[in-house]
Amino acid sequence: DLPLMRSRIRASFDTLVKRAYVDANRIAVMGYCFGGTVSLELARSGAPIAGAVSFHGGLSTANADDAKNIKGRILVLHGADDPYVPAAEVQAFMEEMRKAKTDWQFVAYGNAVHAFTNKKAGNDNS
Description:
Blueprint: H1 2-17, E1 28-32, H2 34-44, E2 51-55, E3 73-79, H3 87-100, E4 104-109
Parallel strand pairs: 1-2, 2-3, 3-4
Helix pairs in contact: 1-2
């Protein structure tokens, strides 16, 4: 439920920026797996963030044109052998970022699977 996901992360963001000790111009978001997907969706929603980082997150979105709303930088850290994110999804994400002329970086780690930041994930992509 993309609208619900975006409304929840935006509510969290809006609560954070109201804090006196927060510099709203220096906020970046990051997440692992689903959290990585959520960080990308916050960026796509047009939130005024400095950047979004996704560690082995899902890359697809319901509306690729939303990438034009991205204001900050994007960093995706991806397992090249992640069976949950097919090559077509990776290519679609890259095209989405290029089309929107977003400031983005994509790092694919060879022989790394989904959840590669967890040692117990191993390297079996089955």
